[in-house]
Amino acid sequence: xxxxxxxxxxxxxxxxxxxxxxxxxxxxxxxxxxxxxxxxxxxxxxxxxxxxxxxxxxxxxxxxxxxxxxxxxxxxxxxxxxxxxxxxxxxxxxxxxxxxxxxxxxxxxxxxxxxxxxxxxxxxxxxxxxxxxxxxxxxxxxxxxxxxxxxxxxxxxxxxxxxxxxxxxxxxxxxxxxxxxxxxxxxxxxxxxxxxxxxxxxxxxxxxxxxxxxxxxxxxxxxxxxxxxxxxxxxxxxxxxxxxxxxxxxxxxxxxxxxxxxxxxxxxxxxxxxxxxxxxxxxxxxxxxxxxxxxxxxxxxxxxxxxxxxxxxxxxxxxxxxxxxxxxxxxxxxxxxxxxxxxxxxxxxxxxxxxxxxxxxxxxxxxxxxxxxxxxxxxxxxxxxxxxxxxxxxxxxxxxxxxxxxxxxxxxxxxxxxxxxxxxxxxxxxxxxxxxxxxxxxxxxxxxxxxxxxxxxxxxxxxxxxxxxxxxxxxxxxxxxxxxxx
Length: 486
Fold this sequence. Notes:
mainly alpha, Amino acid/polyamine transporter I, two-stranded antiparallel sheet, 66% helix, 2% strand, globular
């Protein structure tokens, strides 16, 4: 039973509203919404749209986005209930600790580490592709050996060397944004607000001007016939595409990690989570439709699909090409920023519970940020982004995120049953239908991901279990009966 000791809700609430917890409360609802948009709109639009259209769904990419969005709305409603009830930085980890017990909480915490570390690295690789292309337009060329991963994974061959040294631009952007996050959450949120505004303007320009260049013949067949392999077009391609593209929706999860720095979390967290999710879903669907209408989907398997679509229009929209790249660079920067913001706060909360070393909960005496874990996150993310290709990273992030969403949906059901008396500032509607549908859709998308991705998840979880039983279980601040250890 020690494995399933539950952290008391009253203790979590006291920690949430403890003014001496160390983190500065400076985020309003506007900043929370832009944090969500900053994390959601990035690689999903500027990179993965082309990859999924060309390899999985074709023009039915629109349906993949909608399927992922439905699962996200259900999961987002469950997140909103927990984020307003328990406004702690630990996100799904904390919610599981309060409902399913310490062992499940550790699994989710370890899973979130996979999600955020690999998310920031994935987007940094996409950012690298756009910045290299942008500089090339002005005759500034970075050698290929310094802007590509030295490792790649080829199905049937395994891991191979590419001949590159490392992806230097990806390492640079992570190091820069990690430094900004050490300096302060208010400064980081201000920077994020600016670049979110830039990328939304650019996306609206692409949609508005791209509409007149749509060739409806590119939408036929809307659902390309399956090639005989699961996930390659047809209905299974839509499902596989939804699982991969789900990476694009993890922003609202990142909003919940900033709960402890929100000025009025019980009111503003649901607004930040659901508002950013709905805005981004609309933009995603519109971009997917315009992109596959301008270009045949077979030609979109490139690192900068929106820029390629603009190029295909000839001189008419040539002026938009540099703006698309600027929007992509700004958009991907904000995603990296929010992912790098989320991970240290997961570390911070787990360290406060004793499941990670106490050094992980250190707060900078001047900037009031979790600087130790921010620096550690930056170093690990730099290493991953510099060495691995984007396709491996994005699938790992997707399965990690989906797993966390399944647990949060289940946790809402359990807490409603165990503690119906707790005052919930925001209540998930239509329980148990919404949590069940959220968990079911997210799990179905997990099943649509390649078996190799599942293998890597199992390996990651095995490492986490070793750490838990060797260190975390013995250093937990909860006693065997679930009461806090003084």
